[in-house]
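Troubleshooting: if your tokenizer reports a length mismatch, compare your output against this known-good record of 220 residues.
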Amino acid sequence: MPRTRALVLLAVLTGACLTACKVPDVSASGAGSQPAGTAAAAPVAPGEARAELARLKIAVRGTTDGYSRDKFPHWDKVDGACDTREQVLKRDGKDVTTGADCAPKSGTWVSPYDGETWHQASDVDIDHLVPLGQAWVSGAKSWTQQRREQFANDLIRPQLHAVTDNLNEQKSDKAPDQWKPPLVSYWCTYATDWIVVKSNYGLTITVPEKTALAGMLDHC
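Known-good structure output:
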């Protein structure tokens, strides 16, 4: 099967399932990123997200003992000179132009968390929807570093988004019971995406986190 058709098929299959399509542990291959051109999975319907939320394992939130962002190698090279961060900037922006090093020179970005529009790449951060620290305390502590690398560079699941930089800093490693996007109309998508990511990676949630997610799904 041609490579392009294979990638499209992978995206379709990924979007068609949650629990049945868990992310494999890539510790054997050491592959942390996706090939260039990988398409994001299709959005999951709110009803499906609710059903998956009910299936997520409940556990007490762990501690950050031993946590370091260095244990989640990120911004892998994925397409020539382009790394994961630059791929997201190109994907989420409009009329993006880049230099030979793939760094964006111009473009327009609308942050989904607050609806603000930015014209400099320096004004947006690439947010890990489920933050690296949050992943650590909900299961990633026991992962191999290769799997954590895949998580930190995931271009298929709805894990990476270009957002207003100070909102990314404000969010930090907080779960939805601790922080929500200021744009209430985005709560449905935010909750659905959070559930998809946690489900695909087998991460746990707390009771307050589950309650917050269920409340956000009420906005769908």
